[in-house]
Amino acid sequence: MAARSMARPCRREPRKAEWEVAMPSKKKMRGQSRRQASPRTLRRSVASRPEGLATRRLNELAETLDIMLPELTARIAAVEHLLVEKQLCTHEDLVRSREFVDRPRSRS
Q1: What is the rounded CA–CA span in Å between residue 104 and residue 100?
Q2: What local confidence, expressed as pLDDT, does residue 52 receive?
Q3: What is the pLDDT along the chain (108 residues), one digit of tens a residue?
Q4: Which of 50, 39, 40, 37 shows the shortest CA–CA distance to 58?
Q5: Neighbours of 93 (CB within 10 A)
Q6: Other C-beta atoms lying within 10 Å of the C-beta of residue 54
Q7: Would you say 47 and 56 are in contact if contact means Cβ atoms under 8 Å apart?
Q8: For the whole model, what pTM was predicted?
Q9: Cα–Cα–Cα angle for 20, 25, 31, nearest 5°?
Q10: Sign of CA dihedral 92, 98, 101, 103
Q11: Which residues touch 83 (CB under 8 Å, ≥6 apart)?
């Protein structure tokens, strides 16, 4: 039996010190706490007001544009790069086309 215990050492976890023991959970303080409105209630109050609905819709559109514009800009740059690379137009042509688009329109 002594040989068996020498061949396989015990894999017991080391004992934790007294200060390593998990802290007990804090008890909730008794008293009246104000109940907050649920997100669903808040959504109804915003949606019920026309200006709240418009503001929310405007925020959604702004977020959508923030996602779409960088992607669209990258695609335009890729197309411009291919146009110059395939020698379908020059860099100066692209600059002139941007200037044409940026030019303020005269009212007729």
Answers
A1: 9
A2: 86
A3: 555 555 555 566 556 555 555 655 655 555 555 566 666 655 555 556 778 889 999 999 999 999 999 999 999 999 999 999 999 999 999 999 999 999 888 765
A4: 50
A5: 13
A6: 10
A7: yes
A8: 0.46
A9: 155
A10: negative
A11: 89, 94
Residues 6+ apart with CB under 8 A from 89: 83
Residue 70: both structure tokens together: 């960088």
* Locus of tokens 């959508």: 64
Q: Residue 83 class from Cβ within 10 Å (0-12 exposed, 13-18 middle, 19+ buried)?
A: middle
Do residues 84 and 91 make contact, with C-beta atoms less than 8 angstroms apart?
A: yes
- Answer whether 42's CB lies under 8 Å from 52's CB: no
CB burial of 7-39 (b: ≥16 within 10 Å; e: otherwise) equals eeeeeeeeeeeeeeeeeeeeeeeeeeeeeeeee
Interatomic CA distance for residues 69 and 95, integer angstroms: 20
In sequence order, the 6+-apart residues with CB closer than 8 A to the CB of 45 are 52
